[in-house]
Each structure stands twice: as structure tokens, then as C-alpha cells.
UniProtKB/TrEMBL annotation:
GO biological process, one term: CTP salvage
Residues annotated as domain Phosphoribulokinase/uridine kinase: 49-235
Top enzyme class: transferase
Annotated protein name in UniProt: Uridine kinase
Ranges of residues in domain Phosphoribosyltransferase: 265-466
Amino acid sequence: MGSAAVEDMIEASSGVHFSGFHMDGLDSRHIKKPMISPATENMHNQPFLIGVAGGAASGKTTVCEMIIQQLHDQRVVLVNQDSFYHKLTEEELARVHEYNFDHPDAFDTEKLLDSIDNLRHGRAVDIPKYDFKSYKLDVFPVRRVNPSDVIILEGILIFHDPRIRELMNMKIFVDTDADVRLARRITRDTVGKSRDIGAVLDQYSKFVKPAFDDFILPTKKYADIIIPRGGDNHVAIDLIVQHIRTKLGQHDLCKIYPNLYVIQSTFQIRGMHTLIRDSQTTKHDFVFYADRLIRLVVEHGLGHLPFTEKQVITPTGSVYTGVDFCKRLCGVSIIRSGESMENALRACCKGIKIGKILIHREGDNGQQLIYEKLPQDISKRHVLLLDPILGTGNSAVQAISLLIKKGVPESNIIFLNLISAPQGVHMVCKSFPRLKIVTSEIDIGLNKDFRVIPGMGEFGDRYFGTDDDDDQKVVTPMQQSC
Ligand SMILES: Nc1ncnc2c1ncn2[C@@H]1O[C@H](COP(=O)(O)OP(=O)(O)O)[C@@H](O)[C@H]1O
Ligand SMILES: Nc1ccn([C@@H]2O[C@H](COP(=O)(O)O)[C@@H](O)[C@H]2O)c(=O)n1
Ligand SMILES: [Mg+2]
């Protein structure tokens, strides 16, 4: 994904992610509003942008219609590249059989980009309808396209321009044999568009086939998914729809960073977050609920380790085919807050070795590595890096860089935290695309003091009891019942 797209995502993804919670009943006068930038105030959810390319009559529209049908409960719009054909001059119209409709220059790509930009920023656009018979764009009535959760861009050359390609979250290439495409084209153009068969074959050999070879086929390499047999391939379409559904349920940052995992939110998890974030929660309850959440994050993180298949004999004498845990493993905690996660890791992985890293923070950027104690053979182990809060990402980057310097492959590091700020996620995921981050919630951002907001204050102080006035804190009904 391109830098412009990433910057837009940063802007949008810094916004509140309520995950099913409503503000009804809350008295807004008592809620301190975080200081947020105007860009964040205008935040919107980023649509999931899908590109569908392939030769003419390969089945692109058919595939798109099948996806849309399966996503009937979502807001999905289809934008055809055809709508952006340049208007032909009188001269071109007079000699239309010499016009190359399959060349990238036949399309008004700037206008297409402008429409996509508007849709991505939540603005409706008017798109002309293209009439294949008259070769004209019907400006009246135009088609009004509203911003949606999923935008599908379809067209023979939709992957040609890198600026459009970079905006796409998923790229599909419909791969259908040339003879099938030609046969369908002949039927479509003669029966559907009342064209003369000689002219159709002439256009095919003069323009369509060379353009396919020179411009369309070379874009196949950009596809994330290649669908052979188009609409007949129900398995591929089901998988694509499943993937889109997963992505729609995720935080915007997960759409751009495949190495970021936010554990599935439930009301239990939200309840635990509510307690640990509440400034009135007692130290005892803070530790109890933080430990519960940490355990969930640790278990989720362990799920990302490689495994080997293992068969055992059960007491009934039957064979059970399962998996064996990854053996070469260690934890590394970033002192001091990270140490709060050690017990959960020890509880899950008996006898696990745990190393420590201390990074001193001076303001935002003055990071200094003060102390490290790591297992000697760390380069041969998978490392679970522990820190409950990911803020600016500066300490995390220092710690990860140290692990890599010690010979730990980037892909062997799983960074576990409870709360992440988008700024830290961007920094870590961009710097280390092969590492995995597992977190339980992503917050709005950082305040001017680089503290995560809404956040939960100084985790280490609250967990280890080094903050003050614990006695004044009240016990809530939920704390009593759970
Ligand atoms: N799997 C298929 N089997 C039979 N006909 C198909 C299939 N997929 C598409 N078609 C037909 O082929 C023609 C071109 O399909 P379409 O989806 O419009 O392709 P494209 O959008 O790539 O030009 C249409 O008439 C369509 O009905
Ligand atoms: N006036 C026109 C405009 C375009 N074409 C052909 O349409 C093909 C693209 O449309 P698909 O739905 O098949 O993607 C392309 O091959 C153009 O040659 C046309 O024939 N007349
Ligand atoms: Mg089509």
C-alpha cells in the first residue's frame, strides 16, 4: 500500500473504534474529551477497496455481481472503469473502428482517481453511464454512487495505474482462456450490441488481443488472488467473501498491516478494559482484571507459534492426531510494565526462560538502552516480547532492534500488548513487517505528553501499586459480581 494511502489510514484509524458500544445514557458533561486533532475529528471508516481486473469478457462483472450478492448485508458499490472512457470527438466517432478502446489512454484515469478519492473520504459521486452502442457517456441521468463499506473497482486495466493499485486492499485477476473470452465477446458484441461479426473480429485482432498481451496480462502479477474460470469458481468466490467479511469486522489498521492481530472483542473483554481503564478501580481489582486480559493476549500470541503434527494413543486405544507445542521459546519483558505479563506466560509455558530489557525514556525520543539480560541462545528461539502498552513505539523499536541484533529473526518475534496507540502500531508494523503484534485494543492516539488516550494511566504504577490513594477507590457492582 502506498504512502498516501497509509497516511489517510493513519488519519482515519486514529479515530474511536467503539466495537458495538453506545454512548446512550452517559452524561457527556462528566466525560473529559481527549485533545484530538481536527483531522481526527473528521474521521470516517475507511472502505475496503477491491480491484477486479482481467481480459474483456473474462467474467469480471459476473464475479463482482456474485461477490455483491453474497455480501447482501453490507453496503457495497461497484464502479466500472468503462464509465471513465474518454468522450470521443466527432472525428474519432466517424472513424470509431480505428479507435483503440483497450489502450490505457482510452480512459480518463484522473477522473477515476478523483471519484475514488471522494468515495474513500465519505463523499458521494456522480458517475456517468457508458453506452457501448453509441460509444457515448450518458451524463444525464448520471449514476449516484454513495460512500460504502466496500467499493469494488472493475475493469480491464484497473491495475494499470500504480496510484489506483496502491489504494486497493485486495486485488483479484479473473483468468479465463483467450478462446472462451473471444467466443463470449463475439456473442456479446453481435447479439448484445448488434455489431457486425467481421468488425468484431477485426477489432479483436487489431486492438483487443495486442492490448491484452501488452497491458492487461502484465498486471496479473499485482493480483493477490487469481481466479481461474471466473464465475464458475464458487470456492474462490466464497473464500474472497469470507476474507472481506473478516476484514470488515476488523480495525482499519488490520486492513493495512497483515502482521497486526487484535483479539476478537467480546463484552467480557470490553468489561475488563472498562475496569482497568477506570481511574477509580482499586489496585487489587486492577491486577485481577489486567491479569485476566494478559492471559488472553498471551494465549492468543502462543497460537501464532509454529507447530508440528503429533499423534498420541488415547485411553480408548484410538489414535488422536494433534499438534506438538513449539519448544524453542522464550519471553522478553520490557521493564517495568512488561514484567506484569511474565506470570501469565509462565502459567501457559512451564519453565519458560524469560529475559529482560530496560529502556530509559527521556521525553519522547530520547530512548536509551540501559540494561539487558537475555537467554544466551536467544537467536535460536521464538521470542514473545512483553509490554502491556504500545505508545509511540520508540521503546518497542529499540527492544526489537536489540533482539534482531542478537540474531533473532524478525519473523520469530511476537510482540504482545494490551493497549496500542495507532502511532506505535504504524511505527512497529512498518519498521518490522515480518514481526507480529498481538493486542487486545487499539486506542484513539497519544496526547501532547505522548500518553495513550483514553489509555489507562501508568500501567506499571497501577499494577505494582506504586501510585497513591488506593483507599478512596470505590467498588462497582460489576466488580462485586465477577
Ligand atoms: N462462467 C460463465 N459461464 C458462461 N458464461 C459466462 C460466464 N461468466 C460470464 N459469462 C458471460 O460472458 C459474458 C462476459 O461476462 P462478463 O462478466 O460481463 O465479463 P467482463 O466483465 O469480464 O467483460 C457475459 O455475457 C456473461 O453472461
Ligand atoms: N465503445 C466500446 C468500449 C469498449 N469496448 C470493449 O469493451 C471491452 C471492455 O469491457 P469489459 O466489460 O469486457 O471489460 C474492451 O475490450 C473494449 O474493446 C467496445 O467494444 N466498445
Ligand atoms: Mg464487465
